[in-house]
Task: inverse folding
């Protein structure tokens, strides 16, 4: 049995989540939590990672950020978050999940491919330093 438990973020997680996801302002973290678009993974009862979901054009589910704390990496936390999100999205009628990584993030790209994502496009120069972004999609049905 997996030791990874995934759940919706709640008000008790906010301080921790705001400290962990510094890519968005605290007020946005609160809004995303209230909208049930932040998910927390726990391993053996400890917060181990999180996933923030966005919707491109208010329609297409997109993993805006997935992060596993270093001490919990390679223990199934990321896969647990992904499986939870996939099941939740299927239940809501979605058939595709999108994600991305920087073009120079080879390990992140390998993770996506290993878990069934396929490359579907690149945006050049959208990140600091002119680094591009590789986009992925995963069919859920």
Result:
């Amino acid at each position: 049995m997996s030791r990874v438990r995934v759940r919706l973020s709640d008000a008790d997680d906010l301080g921790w989540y705001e400290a962990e996801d510094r890519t968005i302002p605290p007020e946005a973290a609160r809004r995303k939590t209230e909208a049930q678009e932040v998910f927390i993974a726990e391993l053996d009862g400890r917060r181990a990672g999180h996933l923030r979901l966005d919707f491109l054009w208010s329609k297409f589910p997109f993993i805006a950020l997935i992060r596993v704390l270093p001490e919990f990496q390679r223990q199934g936390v990321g896969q647990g978050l992904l499986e939870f999100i996939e099941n939740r999205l299927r239940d809501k009628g979605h058939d595709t999940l999108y994600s991305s990584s920087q073009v120079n993030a080879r390990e992140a790209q390998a993770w996506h491919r290993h878990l069934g994502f396929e490359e579907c496009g690149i945006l050049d120069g959208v990140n600091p330093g002119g680094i591009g972004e590789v986009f992925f999609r995963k069919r859920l049905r």
Notes: The helical segments are 14-20, 26-34, 77-91, 106-114.
